[in-house]
Amino acid sequence: MGKVLSGYRVGFCAVGAGKTPPCPEDGRSPSLTERLQPGNPGAVQRLLTAVGCQPHRLNEGDPGRWNASALDPLQALVVDTSMLPDAPAERAFLEAVLQSRPASLPLLVLSRRRALEQRLELMQLGVSRCLGLPVRAGHLLRNLRAVLHQALPRTGHVLLLGQDDDALTPWRETLAGAGLAVQLADTPDQAAEQMQNFPAEVVVLDGSHLDVDAVNLIRLWQSDEHQAHRQYLLAGANAVQLERAAGALEGPDEMLPPPVTPTQLLRQVRLALRRARRCAEGGRSLGVALRQGLEERLRWQTRAMEAIVDGISIADATRPDMPLVYVNPAFCEMTGYAPHEVIGHNCRFLQREDNDQEGVHEIRRALAEERPARVLLRNYRKDGGMFWNEFSIAPVRNDAGTITHYVGIQQDVTEHFETQRALREAKQEAERANQAKSEFLSRMSHELRTPMNAVLGFAQLLELESDLSEAQRESVQEILRGGKHLLDLINEVLDLARVESGRMELSLGPVDLRELVGECIAMVEPLANRKGLALETGSLGDVAVLADRIRLKQILINLLSNAIKYNRSGGRVYLDLGLSDRLPGAVRIGVADTGPGIPEDRLEELFQPFTRITSASDGAAEEEEGTGIGLAISRRLAEAMGGRMGVSSRVGEGSLFWVEVPMADPGDPPSEGEAGHASASAPQRRARVCRVLQIEDHPSNLRLLERLLSGQSMQVFSARDAQAGLELARRYRPQVILLDIRLPGMDGYQVLSRLRRDPRTGDIPVVALTAHAGEEDRDRGMHAGFDAYLTKPLHLTTLLETLEDLMQRNSRPA
């Protein structure tokens, strides 16, 4: 706390029953904020010593026996009466003290009485200050300093330094005659010694009769904290001294060139005394203000740390093992430990035996490198409960750059950590469920399409027979129609499942709407003609949208098909384009019909899976086939492409279904339309295919292709497993191989890889014939090296055309 009262002589007396406990030699001096308690005079004496006072212990028993010679040098007297039994005893003792001490000696009393009336009573006896215990040490020092300054004599004190008595005598007589206390010194050492006991306010140096450099001597004294408060006059300064001191921040406060008359000196000394006292008062006021400001700052900083919801701990880096010296209430609440249980201990007790953590190792590295760090630790409360601690540590350095302390910030993030872990586990579980759903969809696609391949395939073979009766041919048509409807249902259910699970892969790119709408109109026009409907389009212009071409076509065909199926005979279907009023930069494609309309309160039901709404007034509409899934898939596909879908309708007038998709950038070229559409008519030219190998594990599919291809004058070799198929391919070197993907033991991709590596079979075209019908499956197959990818159920005409196309591109002798 510094020697703020250095050199002051203060008497100290502690009175009470029995002998006052002696002051321990190794006792600790109280801090400025610490409260001094009643009955502890040793702490008061240690405080006086710590601030630089020269405490004189007086006999506690009888003030009448105090030696007057011991009291005369004192500048203040401090009396601790807190151990007296009652107020009368205290009053009697203080009256004795007041009678024994010099009248000018201020008396400061430390009393157990804190009531205002009791302390006023003691002040009326003649006590200078009365403080009620307990009291903060800083407050006691402020009051002691106040009484010390009040006790200073108002007579000016002047010290004359020179080596010519003849020159100094007139000055001394004039100053003394003016009521000033004057002392003489011959040398700087003598002057310094006298200033320890003589409270000189002004020091006058005779510049003409000194063997030392007067200017530098003054500067040396001004650098001493015990001498700097005085005023220094250099009398009889020569020209060199005047020039050296001119404009300097340090040196004489006033310089008098020779000759210096006693009257002139008296006038300058009086001015210097006034400056000295003004500086002393200002310094005291400034010191008090600074101390009060520092104490206030310390108080609110301490309160702020205690109010913070995060734990704060401070460790002393200058002591072995860096023990904790402070923890705030939040730290105690977080850990369950009281302050006295952790102060003086290293904070590693929070790890217990769990100290092999990466966070612990990082803290050790940070301490070794003297840098901040932030880590996540498993810590343990007093009751053994584990919590996750987000711990930050930072070094605190002194003015010399040396680390004196480390500040730690603790935050209990257990709840956040557990939430994040639960989210990760939920995400992993969702990913596993999603993967299981994908595997289920793939298996269901295969399991459903494989038997459908046999149903529709053999029905198509029957349709090719020329000797069927009309009734038989109608029966075959019913089988094909029902099979196609079931296949559509399978495709739509699988599509809906893919969209809802997020497994539907989209390939977004610019799509020319004029071309796409033309393809869709061509596909549904026969259906419109059969119902006698007018199929019209508005002005399409040159518009390109950013979408997946196949999926946007699927949406438009669904809307056009519904507008035709659920329309009245002789009605109208109208497709038009416009700008979206909700999505900036999007195109709205609207399909309007003149059907019976839909009640407004049931419009949103249309987009729920397996929902069909028909009008009882339109019997034809009720007979139309449908799964009730198409609109649900279409809306989800539109949203997946960054668009949206909706409907408006009026009962008795018709409905308007619309889809909005973002417009493509003008500079992007539209993607090309689909190529290779299967022709409904037979090809004009057939390439001769003699040998075909099919590798398929399902017996009905084997028989279907054997009958179909044998009817086309082809030699068919069949294998029900991969190994047999590879042997037949090497033995007979067929011109085309039809290969199923899902095979027992070795899948189609592995078979394809072996075929390509074998020089005997590497150039044979291979067609994938599979129930895996997804776009991602098709892309994977073509990327793997299949020459064509056909999905079950097969369209026999498409299969024959594919074989002919491959033979034309890869013709070699049979």
3D structure, described in words:
This protein has 814 residues and is α/β, with parallel strands linked by helices. 43% of the residues lie in helices and 20% in strands. A five-stranded parallel beta sheet has the order 3-1-4-5-6, with helices on both faces. The chain has a five-stranded parallel beta sheet with strand order 9-8-10-11-12, sandwiched between helices.
Tell me briefly what this model is:
With 814 residues, the protein is of the alpha/beta class.
Major β-sheet strand ordering: 3-1-4-5-6
Q: Report the structural category.
A: alpha/beta
- The rough form would be described as rod-shaped
Tally of alpha and pi helices: 24
Low-confidence stretches: 19-26, 616-623, 674-687
Helix fraction bin:
40-55%
Rounded to an integer in angstroms, the radius of gyration calculated over CA atoms is 54 Å
By DSSP, the count of extended strands is 29
> What is the residue-mean pLDDT, rounded to a whole number?
82
Query: Which band does the percent of strand residues land in?
Result: 15-25%
User: Biggest β-sheet: count, sense, barrel?
Assistant: 5 strands, parallel
Task: List the defining traits of the structure above.
29 strands; five-stranded parallel β-sheet; 814 residues; rod-shaped; 43% helix; alpha/beta; 24 helices
Please outline the helices and strands.
Elements: E1 9-16, E2 35-36, H1 41-50, E3 54-57, H2 68-71, E4 76-83, H3 87-100, E5 107-111, H4 116-125, E6 129-132, E7 135-136, H5 137-151, E8 157-161, H6 165-177, E9 181-185, H7 188-195, E10 202-206, H8 214-222, E11 231-235, H9 239-245, E12 254-256, H10 262-307, E13 311-316, E14 324-327, H11 329-335, H12 339-342, H13 358-369, E15 373-380, E16 386-397, E17 403-412, H14 414-464, H15 470-501, E18 509-512, H16 513-530, E19 534-537, E20 544-547, H17 549-565, E21 572-579, E22 586-593, H18 619-623, H19 630-640, E23 644-650, E24 654-662, E25 691-695, H20 699-710, E26 715-719, H21 722-732, E27 736-739, H22 748-757, E28 766-770, H23 775-784, E29 788-791, H24 796-809
